[in-house]
Amino acid sequence: MPAPDELVYDPNSLFAEVFSDPALAEDLAFAYSCREINAMVAQLEHHGRHDGAAHWLKHHLPACDDPRRHLGL
Hints:
Blueprint: H1 11-19, H2 22-28, H3 34-46, H4 50-60
């Protein structure tokens, strides 16, 4: 059994698993800033969650005031 302060999961993998949910992206992407979306997309892409990353961008861009900030991710 792990020590009480020892994680038994990989926090980055858990983040990628949770935030690759398309329903979550649809519900929340409009509320995030461009910088936050870019960080989210980069993390998801790094973990091979390309569909999840695409969902966040797809649902953020309609409300985005500067879509150019998302080019070249």
